[in-house]
Write a structure and sequence with these properties.
single chain; mainly alpha; 3 helices; rod-shaped
Length: 140
Amino acid sequence: MRGNGNEALGYLIVVFFLIWLVVKIAIWSIKIILIVLAIAIGLAIIALIPGLIIWLFIQVFKQMRQQEFERVRAILLPILTILMGISIGFCIQLGFSNIWAIAGIFSSSLPLVSILLYPPINRRRLIRQYRDKEQHLIEP
């Protein structure tokens, strides 16, 4: 009987050791799965943001082309707007005392303002020139 008790105790120790080993392997497997899942989600987010920006840029370009904007303007307006937003973000992060951040805002906002303001100003100038010349036209 004594041998059977030692044998049963040995089996019990082996079973508990195997259960402990299976639990440890399961915990490590879950950790590895969670790490891989976190990496996959991070990569998806990293890929999603530029993809979303590119998709929005294309949609804005298509909309502007439907409204008969010139091709160069339809490309430059969204790009300059994005650059100005990035420059403002840098300026907020670095502080408005940083000369390079302020230079970034000016270098992206001045072309943007000129692209936005030039067509209406030019149209008014052309209308004014037409009205001035209209006075000198020969009437039947």
